[in-house]
Amino acid sequence: MSSIVDTSIYPHATGEAEKTVKVHSNKHELVFYAGWFCPFVQRTWLVLEEKELQYEYREVNPYKKDKEFLDINPLGLVPAIVYHGQALYESLILNEFLEDEFPDSKSLLPKDSFQRARCRLWIDYLTKKFTPAFYRTMQAQEEDKQKEALNELVATLKNYLDQVKGPWFLGEQFSLTDITVAPWIRRMYILEEYRGFTDDLVGGHWSDYKKLINERPSVIKTSSDSQRLIEIYQRYLKNETQSEVGKAIRAGKSLP
């Protein structure tokens, strides 16, 4: 397996995402450091768009880990933000920060403290169970390992779907919980094409939920062309990626 880090990825967003980048190309006190292809980036990008915040988009290739960006996030991972000269990173932390810092914008958490805690409980579940299962399914090479990972992925989706009140996790309110899973639902077509995933495996109202996620305006506005994403994920499908996530999956470690 090659250990060479590939820094030759396509340099910028395409499709609807490219249009969104152009809208947010002007200088602003809230700077969003992003990699167009990264689902963790899209998770925070969705919050920015849902809350209709003003921000400056800056494209970063996290594989290069330039010193300028390492000064913002020593881990060299996207997303990150700089706001009033102060840096923050980690998508889930950023999402909570944006929710707290801009209370007059659209709320993505319920007012009820119990329901807020419930959102965070299932965000934690998706982060620890669903997301790793997604990457294990994608990176597994042997057929038996692919089936094992796919079964795990389907089980996590069924468990989550049982908690979705419909149409969204909380019912009528689109929330941080939906946002946590949305970027990977947007990428499920890759598993459908290469790993045998089908909606019928999950059943229930999964296909309706997936359709709603993919048709959400914020998801459309932050998504690049599907073919460009497949080019990126070929590295994962061959288990050759040198991303921090990919290396963690190979090593059987928790995601960074």
Structural features:
256 residues; 4 strands; single chain; four-stranded mixed β-sheet; 13 helices; alpha+beta
What's the end-to-end separation, in Å? 21 Å
Approximate helicity band: 40-55%
Class by helix and strand content?
alpha+beta
> What does the largest sheet look like?
4 strands, mixed
| Residue share in β-strands | 5-15%
Order of helices and strands: HEHEHEEHHHHHHHHHH
Mean pLDDT: 95
What does this protein structure show overall?
This protein is α+β, with helices and mostly antiparallel strands. It is built from 13 helices and four strands. The protein has a four-stranded mixed β-sheet with strand order 2-1-3-4, with helices on one face. The chain starts with 14 loop residues before the first helix and ends in a 5-residue tail after the last helix. The mean pLDDT is 95.
Short recap of the structure:
By secondary structure, the chain is α+β, with helices and mostly antiparallel strands. 54% of the residues lie in helices and 7% in strands.
Reconstruct the topology from this structure.
Layout: H1 15-23, E1 30-34, H2 39-50, E2 56-59, H3 67-70, E3 80-83, E4 86-89, H4 91-101, H5 113-139, H6 143-161, H7 176-186, H8 188-194, H9 199-202, H10 206-215, H11 217-221, H12 226-237, H13 244-251
Parallel strand pairs: 1-2
Antiparallel strand pairs: 1-3, 3-4
